[in-house]
Amino acid sequence: MSSAEATPAAIRVVVAKPGLDGHDRGAKVIARALRDAGMEVIYTGLHQTPEQIVATVVQEDAQAVGLSILSGAHMTLVPRVVELLAAEGADDVLVAVGGTIPERDVAPLRALGVDAVFGPGTAVAEIVEVVRGGVRRR
Fold first, then answer.
1. What pLDDT is recorded for position 21?
2. Which phi-psi region, left, alpha or beta, contains residue 114 (left: φ > 0; alpha: ψ -120 to 50)?
3. pLDDT at residue number 1
4. What residues in the chain have per-residue pLDDT under 70?
5. Burial level of 122, CB count in 10 A (0-12/13-18/19+)?
6. H or E, element range at 61
7. Residue 46, CB-side half-sphere exposure with 13 Å CA sphere
8. The 3-state secondary structure of 35-88, one letter per residue
9. Which of 23, 108, 133, 134 is the most buried (most CB within 10 A)?
């Protein structure tokens, strides 16, 4: 077995804070946990537009994008990100959303193509495993 086969490439994940939400502690905790789990993480910072987020995903050749939203704008921002990913031919990118997402919005987000929705209190290990498992199945 060659060394390339023995060591698979690290999963590349973009962690983004779309919209006007100014609280990024949770996003930074998740970014660090993903990095500590061996993933390559690109954190975009606060106040990103869907266009900026998708441009980063495409430029970085990411396999997953995590959107952290606490502002309540998830039903506007997430569909736009999913739409732009498809327009860029990146609809194979795993999309995860975390934050204060009401239970009534989980099914509509999933119907849009969101792979995972994480609410407050979700164990970090669960998020890591969902991203790892979702990317490997693609």
1. 86
2. beta
3. 44
4. 1-7
5. middle
6. none
7. 9
8. HHCCCEEEECCCCECHHHHHHHHHHCCCCEEEEEECCCCHHHHHHHHHHHHHHC
9. 134
Please give the Cα distance from 106 to 30 (Å, whole number).
20
Check: CB of residue 69 under 8 Å from CB of residue 101: yes
Unique residue bearing structure tokens 């209190």: 121
Determine the pLDDT at residue 114. 98
Cα(117)–Cα(122) distance, rounded to whole angstroms?
A: 10
Task: Say how many C-beta atoms besides its own lie within 10 A of residue 42's C-beta.
Answer: 16
The pLDDT score that the predictor gives to residue 2 is 46
Helix (H) or strand (E) holding 96: strand 94-99
Residue with tokens 């239970």: 103
